[in-house]
Task: structure prediction
Amino acid sequence: MFGRREPVPFAFLSEADRFRSNVAPPPRERASVGQMAGRWLLGLTLVAGLVGSLVLGMPALSTDTSTPAQQSQASQGR
Result:
């Protein structure tokens, strides 16, 4: 019953790891000057946005202890 094996239709896939091609892929294109400048500009814009948000946000997050706490007139009994 199991004496005869049928051929596997995709047997070549098992041999794919042993196959090495002698054809090299084409070299990658170098980025043009405009593309490089655009990447740098985008990076600088992102960094400037992060630094600006920190500069503008830090005063709002800090607690000011130099000014005395204001008391309402109701707490003074007036």
Observations:
- The CA atoms of residues 63 and 69 lie 12 Å apart.
- The mean pLDDT is 78.
- The two ends are 106 Å apart (CA to CA).
